[in-house]
Design goal:
Shape: flat
Number of strands: 2
Helix content: 55-70%
Strand content: 5-15%
Largest sheet: 2 strands, antiparallel
Radius of gyration: 17 Å
Length: 83
């Protein structure tokens, strides 16, 4: 069974994601655990740099992300763009 993203306004399918196998899920959980171990050993300055870069990436995709929020959650576009 696939997971789906549905537009709440018109019921149209936006995206479909296949269910992970148990092995795939275990691999992803192991990767997440490894990331956590790496992250917890980073300094505050290193973490701040990474978070700042993530913010820059999100800002560069501002309109695209606002549109996704609008389509997936039914928010008005101006609400999705709110700063």
């Amino acid at each position: 069974m696939a997971y789906t993203t549905i537009n709440p306004y018109n019921g149209k399918l936006l995206a479909q994601f296949e269910t992970l196998t148990d092995q795939q899920l275990e691999q992803k959980l192991a990767a997440a655990a490894q990331c956590y171990l790496s992250w917890k050993n980073k300094t505050y300055a290193q973490r701040a740099s990474i978070i700042a870069k993530a913010g820059e990436l999100m800002h560069s995709r501002f309109d695209e992300l606002a549109r996704k929020v609008t389509l997936e959650m039914g928010k008005r576009i101006n609400e999705a763009r709110a700063k």
